[in-house]
Write a structure and sequence with these properties.
Amino acid transporter transmembrane domain-containing protein; 0% strand; AA_transpt_TM; mainly alpha; 438 residues; transmembrane helix; single chain
Amino acid sequence: MALAKNGAEIPLLPKTEQTLFTRENQKLILRAVFNVSTSIIGAGIMSVPATLKVLGVIPGFVLIILVALLVDISVEFMLRFTYRGESKTYAALMNESFGKIGSVAVQICIMITNLGCLIMYLIIIGDVLSGQGEHLGVLQEWFGIHWWNSRNFAILFIVLFVMLPLVLYRRIESLWLSSALAVLLAIVFVVICSVMAITAILKGQTVSPRMLPKMDDETSFFNLFTAVPVIVTAFTFHFNVHPIATELGKPAAMSSAVKISLVLCAAIYFSIGIFGYLLFGDSIMPDILVNFDKSSGTSAISSMLNVVVRLSYAFHLMLVFPLLNFSLRTNLDELVFPKKPFLATDTKRFVCLSLVLLAFSYVAAIFIPSIWYIFQFMGTTTGVCIAFIFPGAIALRDVHGISSRKDKIIAVIMIVQAVVTSFVTIATNIYNMSGNTP
């Protein structure tokens, strides 16, 4: 379909786009890849090794690829209906198909998901600086255990002097450079882990990871489902599809950026999963950074690498924080103050929302003991809604009459697998929490 004069109708994937790979478009796509990849990676990389411990290497690899493919399809549904209609946000896209109820539903899910991610970031940063349980943090290893490097105080310091200045930026367009640095830090993290794992293999210090899951009984089988929401949450970035796509302007460019980002992130996830599992085996923690304390280093070099790998990812999360906070704050403002002026133009409202969200994130990070619980909660509820159920429902509703029979079949499969997996995971978690685990 050709571009209409009013710009309302744009094809999703034009058969011919001769200028797609010009130098200018390559730069735009590269910037979009950084923002998309940063939105995806976030804290998800931390719990991937723990999922491989639960699933085994082969099922873990298959799950990562499967979720990445389904996410690509769901984003394609979103982009196709976005460019056919007039929506500029995810909420507006849902409003076109399901009215006010649809837009409010997606806003609530985005707020819960993003707020959960921000809480996870602070938990992980607290793990890095002040440790968790028997594992010491970087500050405690350097200076000993004191009140000023306790978990509560360390997170508070980061919130006030690092996070607060970052979240006060009002435009997402300026974040691509920080996103590029965040992706680079994530790659550095993976490279260091791989070097440490290969060194450990050469020294015979690793244990062969399980290729397949260990299933002793029926409970062990259902426990496999608890790993699924972790991977789903790790690939959920749909709340930033519209802001990033708006900057690109060209549907084919956004589609290319998403595919490149998914391949890159899938490679990063599996790499850290397998190397992290090789390094720590069944002692792997839900937050792998906790394993990189001084007890895991047997020499000065390995101890230094442990510090570098933890601090690099802590800095990565500090750079990702404003990207997710932007979407969270915007959706909260649109839901609570739908008739108010644009948020960036109202300094008082902008600052108040930013402070409230930071304060809530800090308090929650203090009282929630592990990121595994947040991953499972979001992955079984809001995560699957944002990533699969809502996009699938849009394709089935088909208000523009553009879904093919194949699209609708895929949408049904996507929704059914999301609902079934969520139901089994929630039931298994409730069963385990009731003390019935062996």
